[in-house]
Amino acid sequence: MKHILSVKQFEDISLLKRLFIAADKLQATPACKYPQTLSGRTIATIFYEPSTRTRLSFEAAVQNLGGHIISSENAGEFSSAAKGEILEDTTRAINAFADGIIIRHPEPGSAERAAAVSKIPIINAGDGAHEHPTQALLDIYSIYREKGSLNKLKVGLVGDLLYGRTVHSLIPLLALYKAKFYLISPKNLTLPKTITAELHKKGIHYHEMSSWNNALKEVDVLYMTRVQRERFKNVEDYMKVKDNFILTLKDVQTMKPKAIILHPLPRVNEIAQDVDNDPRARYFAQVRNGLFMRMALLQSLYAKL
Amino acid sequence: MKHILSVKQFEDISLLKRLFIAADKLQATPACKYPQTLSGRTIATIFYEPSTRTRLSFEAAVQNLGGHIISSENAGEFSSAAKGEILEDTTRAINAFADGIIIRHPEPGSAERAAAVSKIPIINAGDGAHEHPTQALLDIYSIYREKGSLNKLKVGLVGDLLYGRTVHSLIPLLALYKAKFYLISPKNLTLPKTITAELHKKGIHYHEMSSWNNALKEVDVLYMTRVQRERFKNVEDYMKVKDNFILTLKDVQTMKPKAIILHPLPRVNEIAQDVDNDPRARYFAQVRNGLFMRMALLQSLYAKL
Amino acid sequence: MKHILSVKQFEDISLLKRLFIAADKLQATPACKYPQTLSGRTIATIFYEPSTRTRLSFEAAVQNLGGHIISSENAGEFSSAAKGEILEDTTRAINAFADGIIIRHPEPGSAERAAAVSKIPIINAGDGAHEHPTQALLDIYSIYREKGSLNKLKVGLVGDLLYGRTVHSLIPLLALYKAKFYLISPKNLTLPKTITAELHKKGIHYHEMSSWNNALKEVDVLYMTRVQRERFKNVEDYMKVKDNFILTLKDVQTMKPKAIILHPLPRVNEIAQDVDNDPRARYFAQVRNGLFMRMALLQSLYAKL
Closest partner residue to B94 among A56, A267, A273, by Cβ? Predict the structure, then answer.
């Protein structure tokens, strides 16, 4: 593996297994004993869009492994891009003094364009609505770690399934393990037909539903995302459905005791705050799992797993 | 001590003494011998408001002690906060990959809100007009270090005493050592009555005055702050008093030879630049003392003093 | 050498030679063996203007030599400067917690003003249209390294020679080695008379020309810069000349096989992208040479060459 650009690179059970084991091993290692895989190496985090959580998580991961960070928090405004430089030139220039680039850019395909001219690894930390592979990997790693296994899980995916990038990336990974999907969304925000067609072809079970009433008690995993008011043509349509997609403690109490609730964060109001103390709420553990998955991915690029 | 949120935590002579000794010891240590208390630890500096001096001073302190820095220079604009995430969620997320958070936020009480949900230490680097405890601690450490003792000092506090956060925090600390205060301010910017009432109750002497004419030759410490024109309803009122609060070399020459002049910085024009070369001008030494006080505070959180 | 402020400090063949040797030596050293000259030292990068490439290159250089970085990506907006602090005070304050300042500031002479009050080294990373000495040094080092020698080279300088800061800095350095100059620019953007007069005085050959037709096949080095449309009073004047200053692969094929093409970057469209694969295109190697020249300069400030 030379770059991390797309979740498609990871649709491979044995590769995922190796990553999970590496992340678990790092999670069991005291900080002072982390492998110094990136010792003497410089990693650039180039963010053309704000994403503090993702950037800081990567920067912690790099430094945990002994690497140096050089960073642009707001590359769009402060970099040569503002002077009209193309991304390929920026990439070639950073190749001259860094050993890797973690890039966030609003344009779909930007990470691939960077990788096409780069001799050092490019890690896609989100290219617009296109891909955010490390998020999908930390999501599936969180399910693996929190549930103990991935086989044949019943997974409820909730919210904006039409535009939700994280959901689109997660589904093909879970499909490898024969998940059964509950696709819970407002009618105007259902999963794109291309994705359901793919599930059908693979023989994966899925139910499309506009309310979670019949799903909550069934699922092993509830993956929440936000439904944005802006996606609706009129406010009334939004008001009619919105309560179906705000998770309260009362809802959670109908779920299996061992079910888990995940969310890519940031959350606005789609999970009530008193849910946080329920043991099924694992979205902050999910962030921590992300640190170790990112460390494992860096190891996979610069050493061996 | 789990967090550093308020100067009230430090109204304790024996704790202050331990911090002063620790800071003095660090100041006498060559850089290559600093204790590596934060080795293997990641500290996040999350600044929702610009404050380069405070942020960089903390980041130098953390790295001097062997820690890694992950940083957001402009978290308000670039972070998940912009997407509507509440501070508590941001804090919980950073808990997942860092060992401490140094936070600057415009809202009073924000640092306490972060601490209420945080398992890792929160350091308040300024929460609006409310508290900036490390500034107060570096101020009193500077007086201790520059004067050799804190007992019964005559301290002139100059400028905007009504809104001046640094002054409000410094007064109760100096009161522990029976300071005598000269409270020098325009009549519309006098110290809040709640603070003078507290001094009265403790039997601490203070004089309120609208000019420093009778105070300059008396004081051991002159703590300058800025009087902002915007605080006055009309320009004439400001013009009438402003020269009372701009310190010139001529003024300084009436002070005791061993007196010291401090200022929390940035200075705009309230101290004439030719004062800088007078040995009584100690406001840049004060910044350096701040580095060592911050290192001592970090040690108090992550090790023992 | 205490500070790096101006290319004039480097108009000395023996000093340049020492820097080239130091940079070459670093370039031949594996990353894990870089001298840890800055170990235990903190270097501040304070950028009042965006310049991601320059800042990140310096930050990589500092960390390669074992130093810590504290950084402000957008000091103009986020620092005390926004509150009215003068640069001298900012410099004095940073002196209190850092061991060096790398500064980019829009005002000519700003780096010298900072140096005048600084006990720690100031490195000028660009002060407006005035100086950017490390760019000139990496340019001449690139010519030295790519050509093997600097003696009596034929150097074509192309583009906006009137305002082009990099060109103005490079010419006196190359003049030390008896270069012969082809000054290729639109008629309204010729090199300032003060510089040509200086060349004349030193007995250095130069040709001013408004097209490179007769120069391309002659030069050993082609140093490209951008011609900005905004420099022309009317678009027609610009349209008439612009193709003379956009380098295509066809142009490159008329050049000597061992000639090299440099550019300070960012490039917008003044070099066609298919030129990049020609072995004469050395502008990305130039960026890499910059890393090592900056490391050599830091060594010259904090150790010996």
Answer: A56
Q: How far apart are CA C245 and CA C235, in angstroms?
A: 15
ipTM: 0.94
CA distances from A153 to A156, A157, A165, A201, B201 (A): 10, 12, 21, 19, 67
Alpha carbon distance C123, B99 (integer Å): 33
Nearest CA distance, A58 vs chain C (angstrom): 17
Among A41, A104, A130, A145, the one annotated catalytic: A104
How many CB contacts within 8 angstroms connect chain B with chain C? 84
Task: State what percent of residues in chain B have pLDDT above 90.
Answer: 83
Annotated catalytic residue C83? yes
pLDDT of A175 reads 97
**Has this prediction a pTM greater than 0.90?**
yes
CA of A285, closest CA in chain B: separation in Å?
7
The tokens for A134 are 């490390």
Is the predicted pLDDT of residue B234 greater than 90, yes or no? no
If residue B180 lies in a helix (H) or strand (E), which one and from where to where?
strand B180-184
* Structural contact between residues C114 and C101, judged by C-beta atoms closer than 8 angstroms: yes
Q: Which domains does chain B have, with CATH numbers?
A: 7-133+288-302 (3.40.50.1370), 134-286 (3.40.50.1370)
Give the separation between CA B50 and CA B73, rounded to whole angstroms: 7
- Which residues of A have a CB under 8 Å from any CB of B? 30-32, 34, 50-53, 56-57, 59-61, 63-64, 69, 71, 73-74, 265-268, 273, 276, 284-285, 287-288, 290-291
* Contact between residue A63 and residue C54 where contact means Cβ atoms under 8 Å apart: no
Q: What angle do CA B176, B182, B185 make, to 5 degrees?
A: 125
Contact check, Cβ <8 Å, C34/A41 = no
Output the six-digit token pair for C221. 């080095």
Distance CA B223, CA B220 (A): 10
* Each residue's pLDDT tens digit, C193-241: 999 999 999 999 999 999 998 999 999 999 999 888 878 888 888 888 8
Residue C168 — φ and ψ, nearest 5°?
Answer: -60, -35
Mean pLDDT value across residues A263-281:
95
Q: Specify the pLDDT at position A248.
A: 96
